[in-house]
Amino acid sequence: MTGLALATTAAPARRREKQPGRGWLLLPPVLVLLGFFGYPLVLVVLQSLESKTGEFGLSVWLDVVGSAEFRDAAWKTVALALGATAGCVVLGTFLALVIAFVPFPGARTLSRLVDTVLAFPSFLIALAFTFIYGSAGILGAGGFLYSPFGILLAEITFYTPFVMRPALAAFGQVSSAQMEVAASLGAKPGHVLRQVILPEALPSLASGACLTMLLAMNEFGIVLFLGAKDVTTLPMLVYGKGIVTFDFPQACVIAVVNVLFSLALYGTYRRLTKGGRRAAVDQA
């Protein structure tokens, strides 16, 4: 059986080796990506190096990075992203545990309802929160809504499914035999959760947390729609510099910094998901 499996795996590789010269097929999509994404990004980088007077250098970067406005926006962006990620991990893991291991009527329906949030644009969550917590809303807690805590609650509500989905998939792969053996040895449910279930789901939870932080760090709709006082994130600062004050060089500097943050988080996310897939293959 092992030899047959190896032969079956090696056959497509041999077929691919016998079909050289197909690399040119990748040229059209690569050109499209370079034209629609690479070229505008290069223009943004070049614009960030050119001041309003036409001087080319790092003067705009030094002015932006050294300003208190940029540091405050960067700090609030990271703080909101970390808070939203922590809240999503806690809430998403709890919901996934309940749906996966606590039998109750409507568990599948609850899972589908949470998934529907993924189909909504983020500003609809902010609109719903306005109807509930706004000054003229059901609860009338307007002061809470237009604060960093209101933005945090809205982001946690919107991004929780991004943690819950991979957690549910990971919990579904946990061997029931492991849990039964642990229970037969006298392990309490909390011990089984900490020693058996959560370690198996850790790579999926970590990748979901990285994806959530990546999305929360680039969130624009919720922050703009709620209009919280004294809450300016990097995307909002790009909007203010580029659209309101027409200071395109500074807007490009902030945009490049935001892109670098996003690429770093995306690289971490890819590394974690690759590690999770490798662990699943090794286990199989």
TrEMBL record:
Domain of life: Bacteria
Family, per entry: Belongs to the binding-protein-dependent transport system permease family.
Membrane-spanning residues: 25-46, 78-102, 122-146, 204-228, 248-269
CDD domains: TM_PBP2
Full protein name: 2-aminoethylphosphonate ABC transporter permease
UniProt cross-references to PROSITE patterns, sorted A to Z: ABC_TM1
NCBIfam families to which the protein is assigned, alphabetical: PRK15050.1
PANTHER family, per database record: INNER MEMBRANE ABC TRANSPORTER PERMEASE PROTEIN YDCV (PTHR43357:SF4)
Main location: membrane
Its membrane topology: Multi-pass membrane protein
Domain ABC transmembrane type-1, first and last residues per copy: 74-269
Protein localization: Cell inner membrane; Cell membrane
Keywords per UniProt: Cell inner membrane, Cell membrane, Membrane, Transmembrane, Transmembrane helix, Transport
